[in-house]
Amino acid sequence: MRKIRFASIYLFTLSVVFYVLGTYTVYHTIAMTNSINHQYLGYPEYLHLVFFLVGFLALCSIYFAEKMEVNVLSQTNAALEKEINKRNQTGDELRKSEEMNKELYAEAKRAEEVYRSLLHSSADAIVIYDLEGKAGYISPVFTQIFGWTLEEVKGKRISFVPEFEKESTMAIIKDLVEKGTPCHGFETKRYTKDGRLLDVSISASRYNDHQGSPTGLLVILRDISEKKRLEAQLQYTERIEAIGTLAGGIAHDFNNLMMGMLGNISLILYETEPVNPHYEKLINIEKLIQSGSKLTKQILGYARKGKYEVKAVSLNQIVKESCETFGRIRKNIKIHWEFAQDLLAIKADESQIEQVLMNLYINAADAMSDGGDLLLQTMNATHMEMSDKRYDPKPGDYVLLKVIDNGTGIDEKIIDRIFEPFFTTKEMERGSGLGLASAYGIIKGHGGYIDVDSEKGHGTTFSIFLPASGKSIHETLENSEQIIKGDETVLLVDDEEIVIDVGVQILEKLGYTVFEARSGREAVRVFNEKRDKIDMVILDVIMPDMGGSEAYEKMKEIDPEVKVLLSSGYSIDGQANEILKRGCDGFIQKPFNMKDLSKKIREVLKKDESSHTPFS
User: Fold this and answer.
1) 456, 412 Cβ separation under 8 angstroms
2) Global pTM?
3) Strand partners, 191
4) Please, what's the b/e burial string for 290-314 (b: 16 or more CB within 10 A of its CB; e: otherwise)?
5) What does the alpha-carbon distance between residue 502 and residue 263 come to, in Å, rounded to a whole number?
6) Which range (2-11, 219-228, 236-245, 339-348) has the least confidence?
7) What 3-state class would DSSP assign to 138?
8) What pLDDT does 262 receive?
9) Confidence of residue 476 (pLDDT cuts 50, 70, 90)
10) Closest CA to 93 of 78, 79, 85
């Protein structure tokens, strides 16, 4: 453009110069001619000059018009160049923007895949709702837990909130939608597609769009049914344990009181002839005390402190004998049994298992007041058959006993309380509420499990799982009915004054020399001082300051051959059993009479009973 402009100026200047020179030459020539002819310039000459002037002006016009056109073209060209540059710049920016958009899109796709993967891989169920409560997304875990698929619920409300949970749920949703208040760990219940009711924990929050406006709700649901079941199991076990501990303590103290009563009655009976008019009354009193002792055994059984003599026994035999006995007194009940012929033995206290069975028989009979059928089934089982129960069984082989009746059944509202002590739906004179409680405690004390299935109006099934024993079955031997005297020296140790008082009298009546001690420390001191004279020790297990376990160890240090008979208001379980495992010689349960004590002493001393005088 600059070259064109320079050429135009150059040509114009050259044209002007030639024009001026031409005009001057013409004018000079005309002037010279006229001068020679002595004539002035005429009209033709001036016209000729005018034409030259007009031509000159036309040339100038052409020049300036061209220049103006050149300026216009220059401006247009500049504008075009500017537009081209602008478009080139815009194109570059568009390419950069396009590349950036591609990168952003790829990044968004990656983020979307990550979020989708997170949603899909979550162990909890996830639902995304709009603000109207319509589902836009559900995770695969939601489908696994609740049953609905995305196609079934997308754009719809999920109708899985129970009626009794709607009020609390709507209050949380209102706060969430209106105020954005998130909720964490809200425990509630939700239905599944097939109608099951699950315990769930819900956490929810409101989310916004890219402009910050509320868009929807993110809800996470965790199935806590198993957690709730374990919590209920733990609470139930802790409640049962707490009540059992209390009941066991009461039974222990009550046994000590009855020890005084039963011991004194034994002493009176020992010196009373059968022809005495008060003899029968004394016998009745002794029986009543022994009945009270059975009641405390039931309480101790509930407290799982009621095993006395554990050995390998046949459950088939125990069930058969006990149901035959029960059938004779409740003839309106038809008893059927289905026994496994290859049933494994169990290691149990036979009398305690009989007590459990009688309690279950009586419970079944009370549910069939107009008569009915009682079915008893035994079979071998394993811990795998208890996998759906609310307890966690120890692995191994078990023997299963089912007690099935077709009575009135148990109401669902009270079925969780039937094993609690003193809980009963019977009239006051018909039940103490200890039967099923003691059955529960005894079975648990044997390392077994008991549960119940029942439906109101459709009968009840009690299932008892007892650990199988690999030992051979022993036959039960009848105890001797004789009182056996002796002449040895006995150290009697007990912290209860009434037990010491009656115990000393009984021992002296049996011919023994007696030393007394009212605590573990005193027992150790007396034994250390008179160990050469003492043949055996009757040692209480539960005492303040120093208990029977520590006292036994210290006496063994003094004389490793010391003979000790443990005595307790509790049973052989717990501390007594631990002491027996360390070499103690025997155990006797309070309350005991003169006859029971005489037998236990002779068993411990292992003397030839033929050298002692028996009394009926």
Assistant:
1) yes
2) 0.48
3) 197
4) eebbeebbbbbbbbbbbbbebbbbb
5) 6
6) 2-11
7) strand
8) 80
9) very low
10) 85
Same-domain check for residues 450 and 325 = yes
Query: CB under 8 Å to 163, separation ≥6 — which residues?
Result: none
Amino acid found at 26: V
Domain that holds residue 22: 2-114
Q: Residues 108, 156: one domain? A: no
Q: What is the pLDDT of residues 517-544, one digit of tens each?
A: 999 999 999 999 998 999 999 999 888 8
Amino acid at 371: G
Which of 12, 309, 96 lies closest to 4 in space, CA to CA?
12
Residue of 235, 168, 159, 228 lying closest to 190 (CA atoms):
159
What is the distance between the alpha carbons of residues 465 and 444, in angstroms, rounded to a whole number?
Answer: 10
**What integer is the mean pLDDT of 293-313?**
63
Which of 461, 477, 493 marks a domain boundary? 477
Q: Where are the beta strands (DSSP E) in 432-548?
A: 449-454, 460-469, 483-484, 489-493, 513-517, 536-540
- What six digits make up the tokens of 611? 């050298």
Return d(Cα 491, Cα 602) in angstroms, integer: 15
* Residue 399 bridge partners (DSSP): 380, 466
Q: Do residues 356 and 208 share a domain? A: no
- The pLDDT value given to residue 493: 94
Single out the residue of 159, 163, 182 nearest to residue 172, CA to CA.
182
Residue 403 DSSP SS3: strand
Structurally, the chain folds into a number of domains equal to: 4
Same domain for 504 and 465, yes or no, is: no
**3 state DSSP class of 223:** strand
How many angstroms separate the first and last alpha carbons of the chain?
150
Q: Sign of dihedral through CA atoms 263, 265, 268, 271?
A: negative
Instruction: Let me know: does 145 contact 127? Beta carbons within 8 Å.
Output: no
Q: Are residues 142 and 218 in the same domain?
A: yes
Residues 589, 572 contacting (CB under 8 angstroms): yes
74, burial (CB in 10 Å: exposed 0-12, middle 13-18, buried 19+)? middle
Mean pLDDT over 66-84 rounds to 77
Q: Is residue 259 part of a domain?
A: no
Q: Which residue has the tokens 């649901």?
A: 221
**Dihedrals phi, psi of 159, to nearest 5 degrees:** -90, 75
- Find out whether 562 and 281 touch, Cβ atoms under 8 Å: no
Q: In whole angstroms, how far apart are CA 18 and each of 11, 14, 22, 26, 53? A: 10, 6, 6, 12, 13
CATH number at residue 546: 3.40.50.2300
User: Tokens for 449?
Assistant: 């499990």
In a domain, 292, yes or no: no
**Residue 608 clears pLDDT 60, i.e. is over it:** no
* Distance from C-alpha of 353 to C-alpha of 410, rounded to nearest angstrom: 23
Q: Tell me the CB-side half-sphere exposure of residue 495, using CA atoms within 13 A.
A: 16
Query: Do 349 and 471 fall into the same domain?
Result: yes
Q: Which of 419, 412, 433 is nearest to 464 (CA)?
A: 419
pLDDT greater than 80 at residue 584: yes
Q: Of 574, 519, 598, give the one whose Cα is nearest residue 267.
A: 598
Boundary of a domain, candidates 206, 223, 240: 223
